[in-house]
Design goal:
The protein contains eleven helices and eight strands. With 333 residues, it is an alpha+beta fold. Strands 3-4-2-5 form a four-stranded antiparallel beta sheet. Strands 1-6 form a two-stranded parallel ribbon. Strands 7-8 form a two-stranded antiparallel sheet. The longest helix is centred in the C-terminal third of the chain and has 33 residues. The radius of gyration is 26 Å and the shape is elongated.
């Protein structure tokens, strides 16, 4: 059975040009770090606190008309819809001292919609809940990273593999954070969810390449780590691009057609997907090679000469790939 391949068979020396990608990633990380330090993050109401005004309209109204009315009054707000009730919760960042002023401004702006409405409730929401959830999210993220290092290290019998996968994962997440800082896009709990999604996607593609390296170790035990990594990345290149491109196209459609509410979320996912594809193909293999060349690199099979000795003790490794299975013996006599 033949499979569709977006790219023909390639023979790109990813390891040979690894230092170029190290420099590119280093520049990006420094730029992101400087932006976070000097420009900071534009935190949403989930983290800063602000005024929440709950409004019920007497007739049906489109949320776009509400946004337009608030925009004309220079009010930047998050709007939550209550389906079936013509009710909306309008959230504006600010201090507790400005609650009445903000509520009055919102009420004045909504009069331009020419639809009768009632102010049902005006409250100040403090950042306590957002801070608590943010700490929990960070803790969950750190624990997830630690679990990935342990799992990948155990599966491939070398902790370096897990550590390098997590370094690339951190690269993708921090690049997304940096772009949000540079563009001063609002960061709320939805963006935290996007960052966790990026982490899961990034490590998944990395595992695919690691598995192919393990297969090639069994098929070509005398190969060095450089050749193993290059061949494995080239063999999975078409799969990586097809998978990533499929998700990127779907996310791009969500970004352009999903409305303002989903813009920041889908934009964060787009950055993470592109960065994850880049780091999977060129950053992770380069990092693994940099840290393991000339040493023990995978599945208990040391590099070069020790690998040949392991091959002599297991001659069947030359003939078989772990993807193949022995035919079942028939029970019929």
């Amino acid at each position: 059975m033949s499979y569709f391949k977006m790219l023909p068979k390639t023979n790109i020396d990813f390891i040979g040009i690894r230092k170029i990608f190290f420099i590119i990633s280093g520049i990006l990380m420094i730029a992101c770090l400087l932006s976070v330090i000097f420009k900071g993050m534009n935190y949403g109401i989930d983290f800063t606190g602000g005024t929440v005004v709950k409004v019920q309209f007497e007739n049906n109204i489109d949320i776009k008309d509400i946004r337009s009315a608030l925009g004309k009054a220079n009010i930047t707000a998050d709007i939550q819809t209550f389906i079936g009730r013509n009710s909306f919760a309008i959230k504006v960042k600010g201090s507790q001292d400005s609650v009445n002023e903000v509520a009055h401004s919102i009420e004045g702006a909504l009069k331009n919609t020419n639809v009768a409405f009632n102010i049902e409730q005006t409250d100040f929401v403090g950042p306590t809940v957002g801070s608590f959830l943010a700490k929990k999210a960070i803790m969950a993220f750190v624990l997830a990273l630690a679990a990935m290092v342990v799992y990948i290290g155990f599966r491939f019998q070398n902790i370096i593999w897990g550590a390098m996968a997590v370094v690339a994962l951190f690269h993708d997440v921090f690049l997304t954070i940096g772009v949000f800082s540079i563009m001063q896009l609002e960061v709320d709990l939805v963006i935290v969810a996007a960052l966790l999604t990026i982490a899961g996607f990034s490590v998944n593609d990395t595992i695919v390449i690691f598995d192919r390296v393990r297969e090639n170790i069994a098929l070509h035990p005398k190969w060095g780590i450089k050749e193993l990594l290059n061949v494995s990345v080239n063999e999975t290149l078409s799969r990586t691009i097809i998978t990533s491109l499929t998700v990127i196209v779907a996310t791009a459609i969500l970004y352009f057609m999903g409305g303002e509410v989903l813009n920041n979320f889908s934009f964060a996912i787009l950055i993470g997907l592109i960065s994850g594809t880049y780091s999977t193909m060129v950053l992770v293999p380069g990092l693994v090679y940099q840290w393991t060349k000339g040493g023990n690199y995978s599945v208990g099979a040391p590099a070069d000469a020790p690998a040949a000795a392991a091959q002599e003790s297991k001659p069947e490794a030359k003939k078989k790939s772990s993807y193949k299975r022995k035919p079942r013996k028939s029970s019929a006599k």
